[in-house]
Amino acid sequence: MLDWLVDRECMTVCLVLTLTLFFAVHAGAMGSSPKVSPTVGQKQDSSVEKFASDPRVKQPEALRKAFDQHGTARLIINIDPPGAMAGYDRQEDRVKAALDRFINSLSAQTQKAVIRRFSTIYAFVVKVTPEQLGELLNQQDVNSVEQDALARPLSKPSSLQ
Known about the structure:
By secondary structure, the protein is of the alpha+beta class. Helix content is 50%, strand content 14%.
């Protein structure tokens, strides 16, 4: 019986904290000052400014918007293919080995943010904070960074014309 009471109290506390955070975030979005310490906001702004001028980042304004709205962004990270990789007969094996080597060189927190690895191209999908993006951009093997978003079709399918 006590376990039920403890679980219920825990759920109540979690609900109160969630609602408090929800209203604090939305109050900041509606014009009142957000309840965030200045150092956190300044740290994010400086990280965002660093990547905005990096030529490897495609559409930096869209990334800035994603970071402003959500605090994170889902990105496709393309890395440079390594030189000749002896011992690998298949393209998929070469890609997997290169991605493993690259991702294992990142911090544990950024490694956990990896959502998907591609099997035939040297790229992976990651959901990161601006600081984690800064870590990725410090790696010289990063070729390009772009937001992972649905692409709109260029024309109507032939069946609809």
